[in-house]
Amino acid sequence: MASKLVQGKHSLRNRLLIAAGALAALAAGILAAERPGSADAAPSTGYSVVIISGDGMGPAQRTATQLAKYGYKTQPMDALPAGGLLKTNSILPVTDSAAGATAMGTGHKVKNNQAGLAPNGKKLENLVELARSLGKSTGLVEDHDVTNATMMGFAAHVKNRDNKAQAARQYLEETHPDVIFGGGEEVWYPEGHPGKLPDVISDDKSTGRENLVKKAIDQGYQYAWNRKTFDELTGPQALALVQDDAYIRGHEIKGYKKDEDPHFVPEPVLMEKALEILGQNPEGFFIAADVDELDDAGHEHDGKSIIQSGQIVNKMVEVVQEYRETNPNVLLIVTADHETGGMTVETPAMKSTNSGPDGDVPAYGTPQNVPLPGGETPKRSGPFKVKGKDAKFKVDWTTPGHTGLMVPVTAAGPGAERFSGVHPNTFVHEVASDVLNGTP
Ligand SMILES: [Zn+2]
């Protein structure tokens, strides 16, 4: 697989080398296979890649976040020097997160709902496994459960995205990400185990089969469950199962404020710590990060949460960009697995024509996020103020599900300029693996 990953690069190289003869080509092949440090113009440290996926983050999600938080200025995720569009289809025109992440994480288009597996069931090498085979450190950073479909596409091989406990076990037994940061402790503890986080709503109760936290600790992982223990993490291996930024929690628990929850760690802080720990490896690292709340908010037609979650992407981008100032060998890619909701940005005068949300979070109800009889704007769809201006805008939707739209991709660092143009989402994997292989 690894050799296939660099095939694109080799074919370009080979075209240049045909004239130089077979011997030169052989020498170049050997050179390309060597690690950074020995190749020409090699950096002093290995190449690294950070992928931030805003789950369901299409052009409208990016635009609404920009207008509400930066006015007409360019937001951090759009200020990266290179960019293009990605086609998001799986083997169907409309993908889910598992197939979307698998395309980016393994370079293969697969069936929806399964991650890291070819349609024939064969395991596909993912970027976590590739980076590890190159001696690099690896990490997962997630605002929801760290065993969700997106993380699976980068670090697991499961037939069904609902098999979260299986993904957790695979992290420890097969793919070994050095840093595992996110929510979802319930699948890491056996049923009946109280875990470390308080069980407030039914979703909090342990549903796993074995104590995977103990297994991780036995393997040498440091373990954190709240902000205090998180701040003490030093690595090189760390598992943090903290309170996720769950959509349901914020709306089902009266008066819940995540920032006052001692078990909540803000996503940019998760990223900062991941960089601090993984950056200790001179060979470099790979990080897959996901802001899943964008997708939930898209399904629920919740423009307010879209904007808040989009801003989390911007804050994570700022953390990585600051890190890149002293570590320029890091390629940062900001994109999405697909678009959710068929969202658009309109003037407030337009009637809302939105379809209904998918109803996973019925807490809102009329007039928060459902279509109103006279076409009035549901509260969660606006109008929103354009930052620093008198102008306002609203958002509208066409579907409670995912769409087959292209999504923006922006990037900075080695290989970033390759994203110019329109590419399949598997191209993320092609560029990322070339950079990890030391041939951006
Ligand atoms: Zn979704």
Outline the structure in words.
- By secondary structure, this protein is of the alpha/beta class.
- It has 2 domains: about 1-35, no CATH class; about 50-340 and about 405-435, 3-Layer(aba) Sandwich (Alkaline Phosphatase, subunit A).
- The chain contains 15 helices and 15 strands.
- It has helices at about 1-5, 5-15, 20-35, 60-70, 95-105, 125-135, 150-155, 165-175, 210-220, 225-230, 245-250, 265-280, 295-300, 305-325, 425-435; strands at about 50-55, 80-85, 135-145, 180-185, 220-225, 240, 285-290, 330-335, 340, 345, 385, 390-395, 400-405, 405-410, 420-425.
- The strands form 3 sheets. A 10-stranded mixed beta sheet has the order 5-6-4-3-7-1-8-14-2-15, sandwiched between helices. The protein has a 3-stranded antiparallel beta sheet with strand order 10-12-11, with helices on one face. The protein has a two-stranded antiparallel sheet with strand order 9-13.
- Helix 13 runs antiparallel to helix 14.
- The longest helix is centred in the last third of the chain and has 24 residues, at about 305-325.
- The protein is globular, with a radius of gyration of 22 Å.
- The two termini are about 20 Å apart.
- The model is unreliable at about 1-45 (pLDDT under 50).
- The structure holds zinc ion.
- Zinc ion binds near residues 97 and 402.
Distance from first to last alpha carbon: 18 Å
- The radius of gyration over CA amounts to 22 Å
Number of contiguous helices: 15
CATH superfamily of the largest domain: Alkaline Phosphatase, subunit A
**Which small-molecule species are bound to the chains here?**
zinc ion
Task: Tell the overall outline.
Answer: globular
Strand content bin? 15-25%
Here the CATH topology of the largest domain equals Alkaline Phosphatase, subunit A
Q: What is the string of helix and strand elements?
A: HHHEHEHHEHHEHEHEHHEHHEEEEEEEEH
Structural class: alpha/beta
Q: Which consecutive residue ranges, at least 5 long each, have pLDDT under 50?
A: 1-44
* Helix coverage percent: 25-40%
**Overall pLDDT, averaged?**
88
Which oligomeric state applies? Answer: single chain
Major sheet: order of its strands? 5-6-4-3-7-1-8-14-2-15
Secondary structure tally: strands: 15
Number of domains: 2
Q: What's the CATH architecture of the largest domain? A: 3-Layer(aba) Sandwich
CATH class of the largest domain: Alpha Beta
